[in-house]
Amino acid sequence: MARIIDIHAHGAQDAAIDALSSGQCVAIPTETVYGLAADATNGVAVASIFEMKGRPRFNPLICHVDGLKMAETIGAFDPVSRKLAEHFWPGPLTLVVPRRVESDIHDLVTADLDTVAIRAPDGPSRAVITGFGKPLAAPSANRSGRISPTTAAHVSEEFADRDLLILDAGPARVGLESTIARVDGNRIILLRPGGVDADQLAAISGLPVEQAQANGRIEAPGMLESHYAPDAGVVIDVTRCPQAAALLAFGPDDGNGNGNGKDRSGASEMRNLSPTADLAQAAANLYSMLKELDSGKPSLIAVEPIPREGLGTAINDRLRRAAAPRDQENKAR
Ligand code: TXA
Ligand code: MG
Description:
- There is one protein chain.
- By secondary structure, this protein is α/β, with parallel strands linked by helices.
- It has helices at residues 12-21, 43-53, 68-71, 79-88, 107-110, 125-132, 152-158, 198-205, 279-295, 311-322, and strands spanning 3-6, 26-28, 35-39, 62-64, 93-98, 115-119, 136-137, 165-168, 179-184, 187-192, 209-211, 233-235, 246-249, 269-272, 300-303.
- The protein folds into two domains: 3-180, DHBP synthase (Alpha-Beta Complex), CATH 3.90.870.10; 233-332, Rossmann fold (3-Layer(aba) Sandwich), CATH 3.40.50.
- It is 27% helix and 19% strand.
- The longest helix has 17 residues, at 279-295.
- It is globular and about 60 Å long.
- The chain contains ten helices and 15 strands.
- The strands form two sheets. An eleven-stranded mixed sheet has the order 1-8-2-3-7-4-6-5-9-10-11, with helices on both faces. Strands 12-15-13-14 form a four-stranded parallel sheet, with helices on one face.
- α1 (12-21) crosses α6 (125-132) and α9 runs parallel beside α10.
- The structure holds threonylcarbamoyladenylate (TXA) and magnesium ion.
- Threonylcarbamoyladenylate (TXA) binds at residues 30, 32-33, 35, 59-62, 94, 96, 110, 113, 115-117, 121, 138-140, 177-178, 180, 191, 219-222.
């Protein structure tokens, strides 16, 4: 049985550290989404993450650290990567850097790549990492290809049948996975849009930011097409809700169930990501509202247009994948 414990409850963090030390997975809150964490140096523990998620082993994991000092024991930071880490950590930025050969991170974590993805998450889980003293490998705490969890209850729904300790710190503040970036000479390659946007990366680094090209090789399987998928079909950029679809709206309502030229009258059910058209609020609500609409078992979830700027880039990236055609080949794990 999954067990939810308040991360600030007496003994909660010690219980998590004990479980991690004995090779078990623990679900931890971060400011982006909840993660399914294990000791990154313990191959058996890391293998159990893949097994619980049903995730292919060619898909590498992010190492979570408590700060730059721990990060530098596993990855080699060039000056720009270091500057980005100093500015954005703790926070929703994952940096891909060359892996240190002497580091004892297990090969399963990096899927045998010679790079490693590292981030320092914000919030009370940092103290757990410090207490544990080693990096934690953690993907989002959902079964593969499905919507990432932004609350402890979401995690326990995904893993209800498993013996799993879930630390609860309330709803995730950002609500979307971290930005993944790699410094490549005089430019920055954006592997996955997320809580830190391209303009912020460019401003701090002074370098141009380029989108990663999907070249057949998996650089960040957020790049695999279908991902973050609810059970219902998803259509995006909808301004006139089809009859009987569940509607994920964005922006103000005119009081008659319609919004700014958008026809919401066909909706069987509606959630509004942000009635004030605030992108941070929309990001924080995205996954939980998708799950709420999906639980009514509609055949279709229609999503109104979200501006493609700032955090809207990451929101549209996730929505596009939720709407992508699904088949086993294509489904990200
Ligand atoms: O916000 C987040 O990043 C959350 C929380 C739990 O920290 N984690 C998360 O992990 O989203 P996951 O496993 O769902 O996504 C990690 C992504 C994958 O797309 C993976 O391919 C990529 O990171 N990745 C890991 N190591 C990499 C590497 N060495 N090079 C390129 N991409 C890498
Ligand atoms: Mg994930």
